[in-house]
Amino acid sequence: MTISPFQLAIEQAKAARIHDEVPIGAVIMDAASRKIVSSAHNLTESRLDPTAHAEMLAIREACHTLGSPRLHNCDMYVTLEPCPMCAQAISFARIRRLYFGAYDVKGGGVENGPRIFHQATCHHRPEVIGGMEETVCADLLKQFFAEKR
Question: Measured between alpha carbons, how far is 129 from 118 in angstroms, rounded to an integer?
């Protein structure tokens, strides 16, 4: 049985939790070949790097793998609505389609907050599909933060 890209993103989020990182996972898939190009989870704590979000790491890996700063034919799957930094990076990378899980009312940058893709200064707007496995993704985050309190 083949695991879907979104299920792989959830597995990445679970891996982050094991390493005491905020459980967010991201996967980038080549839309034409349906091959996974990269996958990552948050590493901000272990790398002491506030930019080491799952999306940023997956974009960096995909660009390196494909030998291009643009990911025109790629789709991203991420377990939480990307923050403004990650949304802008998704735009700069020219990702074709963004699928995300839980909505992030406090820190999101796609459907909430500054809504990066709706700004006049945004040069590329991916197609966005939100709310995939929303409950599963939100529960991973709720459980993680409940254990921290």
Answer: 15
The verdict on whether 55 is a catalytic residue reads yes
Task: Give the pLDDT confidence of 17-75 residue by residue, as tens digits.
Answer: 999 999 999 999 999 999 999 999 999 999 999 999 999 999 999 999 999 999 999 99
User: Beta-carbon neighbour count of residue 2 at 10 Å?
Assistant: 7
Alpha carbon distance 125, 8 (integer Å): 24
Q: How far apart are CA 17 and CA 146, in angstroms?
A: 12
- CA–CA gap between residue 61 and residue 5 (Å, rounded): 16
Sign of the CA dihedral with 120 first, then 123, 124, and 130 last: negative
Q: Quote the CA–CA distance of 116 and 9 in Å, as a whole number.
A: 22
Cα 111 off chain centre by: 14
Of 11, 21, 45, 55, catalytic: 55
